[in-house]
Design brief:
The chain has 331 residues and is of the alpha/beta class. It contains 13 helices and eight strands. Strand 4, helix 6 and strand 5 form a beta-alpha-beta unit. The longest helix is centred in the last third of the chain and has 22 residues. The chain is globular. Bound molecules: glyceraldehyde-3-phosphate, 1,3-dihydroxyacetonephosphate (13P) and zinc ion.
């Protein structure tokens, strides 16, 4: 089946009350690991590429890897999503490549560092919605700023989302999904102790606008066992905590539908490669250690698909094409 618009995948998740993981990808092994997990658990899946991933893969490779995933897994609804677009141009570029969904992260300026005003965010997000919907492409917006800075992305300033602003933002922009800042942050170093997320914000927004699925960024759980493997085989990561799975499950109950996970896949791959190379000092065939990394991504993502309740839902609905959804937008 062709790549599916994200709006349908999230709307269906809302109807049945589960969450869908959005897993960051940069290479074939990540995509294969994620797709094996989706296929075995029968889960709809969002594969997302950041601007950094587009640069790393020279864009065209990511496009064809996603097409390969769709060809190889005809029974699985797959969304190809741009993670943290920084302006109309980056969203247009992704749409031209065949992405079925884009995030316009208007919480930050084009430098992906400086927080914007509410009005600036509305203006840029609205321009992306107007453009993307002409192609049937889904748009995710973001209001509020997360902590954490990854590869220079992020302001380092935390500003939780104000529910009143979120309602106004959805009405003014027409976004299909909205990322909220509820206390999570990007990267491996999120919390020093058990976090308390501001989940009441989710309830407030859902109560007033139940039709727009909500998104949680910075949702890696940073499992201690993954950190332990890395450190056992020569790594030096500091003790840290991510978002516990029960907190994510509670967020899903309250109305979070898209859960962004990048760091956990990175940790899983790094640990597997370190372990393999430490135990096989004579190894030099990249397939051996990349194969281990792919297996580690598969294991991690499979457990997330089960924990988020995505498993078993791939066949629940007839997937829409961009053409189908275009008609809905133009009604
Ligand atoms: O939110 C950011 C994602 O983790 C992507 O990170 O820009 O290093 O690819 P990246
Ligand atoms: P993590 O760093 O917690 O995996 O978050 C990823 C993310 O939000 C990508 O947009
Ligand atoms: Zn993010």
């Amino acid at each position: 089946m062709p790549l599916v618009p994200m709006k349908q995948v999230l709307d269906e998740a809302a109807k049945a009350g589960y969450g869908v993981g959005a897993y960051n990808v940069n290479n074939m092994e990540q995509i294969q690991g994620i797709m094996r997990a989706a296929s075995e658990t029968k889960s709809p899946v969002i594969i997302q590429a950041s601007r950094g991933a587009l640069k790393y893969t020279n864009m065209v490779y990511i496009k064809h890897l996603a097409a390969a995933a769709a060809e190889d897994n005809p029974g699985i609804p797959i969304v190809l999503h741009l993670d943290h677009g920084n302006g109309l141009e980056s969203c247009k570029q992704a749409i031209a490549l065949g992405f079925t969904s884009v995030m316009m992260d208007g919480s930050l300026k084009e430098d992906a560092k400086t927080p914007t005003t509410f009005e600036e965010n509305v203006a840029v997000t609205k321009s992306v919605v107007e453009y993307a919907h002409k192609f049937g492409v889904t748009v995710e917006g973001e209001l509020g700023t997360l902590g954490g800075i990854e590869d220079g992305v992020g302001s380092g300033i935390v500003k939780l989302t104000d529910p009143d602003d979120a309602v106004r933002f959805i009405e003014l922009t027409g976004v299909d999904a909205l990322a909220l800042a509820i206390g999570t942050s990007h990267g491996a170093y999120k919390f020093k102790s058990e976090p308390k997320l501001a989940l009441d914000i989710v309830n407030e927004v859902v109560k007033r606008i139940p039709s727009v699925p909500l998104v949680m960024h910075g949702s890696s759980s940073v499992p201690p066992e993954l950190i332990a493997v890395i450190n056992e085989y020569g790594g030096k990561l500091e003790k840290t905590m991510g978002v516990p799975i029960p907190s994510i499950q509670e967020a899903i109950k309250r109305g979070i539908r898209k859960i962004n996970v990048d760091t956990d896949g990175r940790l899983a791959m790094t640990g597997a490669i370190r372990k393999y190379l430490s135990e096989h000092l004579d190894a030099f065939d990249p397939r051996s250690y990349f194969g281990e990394a792919r297996e580690a991504v598969y294991q991690t993502v499979k457990s997330r698909m089960i924990a988020f309740g995505t498993a078993g839902h791939a066949g629940d609905y007839e997937p829409m094409t961009l053409e189908d959804i275009k008609k809905e937008y133009n009604k």
